[in-house]
Design a protein that fits this description.
The protein is of the alpha/beta class and 416 residues long. The protein has 3 domains: 19-84, PUA domain (Archaeosine Trna-guanine Transglycosylase, Chain: A, domain 4, Roll); 91-199, Transcription Regulator spoIIAA (2-Layer Sandwich); 223-415, Vaccinia Virus protein VP39 (Rossmann fold, 3-Layer(aba) Sandwich). The chain has helices at 6-10, 25-32, 92-106, 152-162, 174-177, 227-235, 251-258, 271-282, 288-292, 302-311, 333-349, 368-381, and strands at residues 19-23, 37-39, 43-46, 55-59, 65-71, 77-84, 116-121, 130-135, 138-143, 167-172, 191-194, 201-205, 208-212, 241-245, 263-268, 294-299, 316-321, 351-361, 387-392, 409-415. The strands form 4 sheets. A 7-stranded mixed beta sheet has the order 16-15-14-17-18-20-19, sandwiched between helices. It is globular, with a radius of gyration of 23 Å.
Length: 416
């Protein structure tokens, strides 16, 4: 990768002196089990104050090495752990080893006509607070903590050696975007290496073509985590009428079309997302089933659309409900579960007898069992019985390395 952004070489380096920490007994136990976070309240002793990105070494009560990680004084997650049990030098070679392991895990995807996938899944790939998504010849790094800024130069160098591409872009989380004093000129959407992006990216997923806007799109431009569930929907779509609510850029809809759906309606509140869904159908017109499918788009609130369709007695063979995260913290769990119950009821209200309901959640605060129980409870309250086809979780490019890392769950069920 050429044309590296000069800003990278001007970023500060982490302090040469490592910080020493001791933590509470419960935090010690969690570290021994491989947990990737140390919270501020768990720190019982600290050698000195540090800046974001300084390396913090955690010792047990007998002064033995437990872990080393990135210190972040701006976050309640005070240390993001990079290395457990054995000491290590955190440098370019260490990052390369992590990236090689991540590549090996995802190798099966390269045989599936897929060049859009998550290359690094944060904590679950041993790089907490950082993700990397691939879209064809573009890589997008997204960082969630200022602790990564002093390590970005070495990480990008390792990335260019293990995953050479035409372009490397940077996305910043919302909270990080507000911490300008720790960014040293880095900006959300900037190009870190290669030529600046002009227009949109086209990439392949299971042989289908999708467009992606890595600068303005949600996440890094596309919901890569639903790839396998989209493929499942394709197999269920032959001859069906399909309603896809919270459709975003129409991923499930395009798969349903290739699967032989006769009619598809994509609903999303975002007009630009609905426009992209229209484009994604256009990108796949060379596939006869996609070309012949009737596709309608509606830019409106999903709850309102479902309510209106139920009052109009409109019925579908397959209803897909893939909403955004409803519960971002503990205080939102009750409201989130209430929203899922309402969506199940509304979805069943437009589902033909014998039809299939596909309902997903990306709220990590709501565990899978609670989510599935909530759907069944709502179905019973609607006097509908759900017969499960399958419960699904994470795809191989979104591995789960610790309990809080699990967020995606999806139910496939028929409703007689």
């Amino acid at each position: 990768m050429t044309n590296s952004n000069p800003l990278l070489s001007q970023l500060p380096s982490p302090a040469a002196k490592r910080m020493a920490l001791h933590v509470s007994a419960p935090a010690e136990r969690a570290l021994r089990q491989g947990h990737p976070w140390i919270f501020d309240q768990a720190i019982t002793e600290q050698s000195h104050e540090g800046a974001p990105g300084d390396l913090a070494v955690i010792f047990d009560n007998k002064r033995r090495f437990l872990a080393v990680g990135l210190y972040d004084p701006t976050s309640t997650i005070r240390v993001r752990i990079l290395q457990h049990r054995q000491p290590a030098t955190i440098d370019e070679n260490w990052f390369k080893a992590k990236l090689i392991a991540a590549n090996q895990l995802r190798e099966p995807l390269t045989y599936q006509s897929t060049n859009g996938y998550r290359l690094v899944h944060g904590e679950n790939d041993g790089l907490p607070g950082l993700i990397v998504d691939r879209y064809a010849d573009t890589l997008v790094i997204k960082i969630y903590s200022p602790a990564w800024v002093p390590h970005l130069k070495e990480f990008c160098s390792a990335l260019s050696q293990t995953n050479p591409t035409q372009r490397l872009m940077l996305r910043l989380s919302r909270s990080l975007n507000k911490q300008s004093r720790f960014l040293y000129g880095l900006e959300d959407g900037m190009t870190l290496a290669g030529l600046p992006l002009e227009g949109l990216i086209l990439f392949q997923e299971n042989g289908l073509t999708f467009e992606c806007d890595p600068i303005h799109g949600q996440k890094t431009g596309f919901f890569l985590d639903q790839r396998e569930n989209r493929a499942r929907v394709e197999k269920l779509s032959q001859g069906k009428s399909v309603l896809n609510v919270f459709a975003y850029t129409g991923g499930f809809s395009v798969y349903a079309a290739r699967g032989g759906a006769k009619q598809i309606i994509s609903v999303d509140l975002s007009a630009p997302a609905i426009q992209a869904a229209f484009h994604n159908f256009a990108h796949n017109q060379h596939i006869p089933a996609v070309k012949s499918a009737l596709h309608e788009t509606i830019a409106d609130d999903a709850f309102d659309v479902l309510t209106r369709m139920e009052s109009q007695k409109r019925l579908f063979d397959l209803v897909i409900i893939d909403p955004p995260m409803f519960a971002q913290n503990q205080s939102q769990i009750a409201a989130g579960l209430s929203a899922y119950r309402k969506l199940t009821r509304l979805g069943l209200g437009v589902l033909r007898s014998g039809g299939t309901l596909v309902q997903a959640s990306c709220s990590s605060r709501i565990d899978a069992e609670t989510f599935f129980d909530t759907i069944h409870q709502s179905a019973r309250e609607s006097s509908r019985r759900l017969i499960e086809i399958e419960r699904t979780g994470h795809a191989l490019d979104h591995p789960i390395g610790f309990e809080e890392g699990a967020y995606l769950k999806c139910l496939f069920a028929t409703a007689p």
